[in-house]
Amino acid sequence: MITECTQKTFAFHPLYRREVLVQFQGGTLTSDAGALLLRETEKRLGIIERFARCFTDYRKPEWIEHTVYSLVSQRVYGLALGYEDLNDHEQLRRDPLMAVLAEKEDVEGEKRRQEQDKGKPLAGKSTLNRLELGGEQASEQERYKKIVVDLEAVDKALVDYFLDSYRRPPRQIVLDVDTTDDLLYGNQEGRFFHGYYRDYCYLPLYIFCGRQVLCARLRRSNIDASAGCVEELERIVGQIRGRWPKVRIVIRADSGFCREALMVWCERNEVDYVLGLAKNARLREEIEPEMKRAQARWQKTGRAARVFADFMYQTLESWSRSRRVVGKAEYLDKGE
Fold first, then answer.
1. Sign (positive/negative) of CA torsion 156, 162, 167, 168?
2. Which helix (H) or strand (E) element contains residue 182?
3. Closest CA to 152 of 74, 248, 55, 222
């Protein structure tokens, strides 16, 4: 049976006085039309617009053809579509769809000032490169890199996105702290081999609440996984409590973050935490009775058996005090 599609045209937010329609016949075709859905999301949430406000533009207004918002939009949508390399924008700058995404009124570049720019509504790789590689400080006297990002404003904006997504303060939130490997394939600055991931990589730090990112910090990989997490949490928790003073906050992370500095900070700031704890001989001995019970239950039922133990524990040197530990003794077909 042949599927019959009754809807042949899809309408999106207009671009100034232009209608934005998607249909499946004729004209110039694109394989990136799905990005219009991202534009609809941006129209509702204003994420890119707020991010663009974290930049200061020292260029002369009368010379500007590409606003900061347009440049940031072009780069963000390009990344979302899989165009990671700035060189890709030498072709993308001619794309009318990308011009729509960047909110360019002149989507075909017919009104560009310079003759060599006609037909290129968007910025090229060199302009985007100056945006990305601008220093932390600049002024009107700077010759090339006159757009500066306020990194503190970007950090604050990520948390503000999260806070603004709630109509009313929740009773409790869980902040997940984690790292992952960002593999490297060349001789990038700060390149190190990481033994756990068995490759050359960066080791970015992430803090999430549910599916929303509150922190994404790029770091070298020759560091402890927990490096810098206390400073990031102090900043984020302070901002959250400034808006929601009564919310209960729980930090959740794996054993790579089970460090004295993090636990002490949580205890002093009334933040609860659930951290993984790497097993060792003393911990295994502590739950030996529960392990025997789990084994006996498995032998009796033939099913996976789990028994939990709850006890106070302190390391020999690194912890300043005893803390509650929950241990899980588990016995499966393949053993304990």
1. negative
2. strand 182-183
3. 55
The 10s digit of each residue's pLDDT in 38-80 is 999 999 999 999 999 999 888 888 888 999 999 999 999 999 9
Place of tokens 């609440």: 209
The residue type at 113:
R
Burial label, 240 (beta-carbon count in 10 A; 0-12, 13-18, 19+): buried
**Pairing mode of beta strands 182-183, 192-194:** unpaired
pLDDT tens column, 185-225: 888 888 999 999 999 999 999 999 999 999 999 999 999 99
Q: Strand (E) positions, 34-87?
A: 55-57
CA distance 119 to 129: 21
Measured CA to CA, the distance from residue 184 to residue 132 in angstroms comes to 19
Q: Facing residues of 176 across strands?
A: 208, 252
Helical H runs in 53-191? 68-80, 89-92, 96-101, 125-132, 151-164
Specify whether the CB–CB gap between 266 and 272 falls below 8 A: yes
Q: What is the DSSP letter of 336?
A: -
Asked whether the beta carbons of 194 and 221 are under 8 A apart, the reply is yes
Prediction pTM value = 0.84
CB 35, CB 77: distance < 8 Å: yes
Answer yes or no: are the C-beta atoms of 309 and 327 closer than 8 Å.
Answer: yes
Kindly provide the b/e burial profile for residues 170-192, where b requires at least 16 CB atoms within 10 angstroms of the residue's own CB: eeebebebbbebeebeeeeeeee
Token digits of residue 47: 């994420």
Check if the beta carbon of residue 81 is closer than 8 Å to that of residue 35: yes
Contact 137, 126 (CB under 8 A): no
- The whole-angstrom separation of Cα 98 and Cα 101 is 5
Residue 288 CB-half CA count within 13 A: 6
Tokens 């109509």 locate to 167
**Which 3 state secondary structure label does DSSP give 62?**
helix
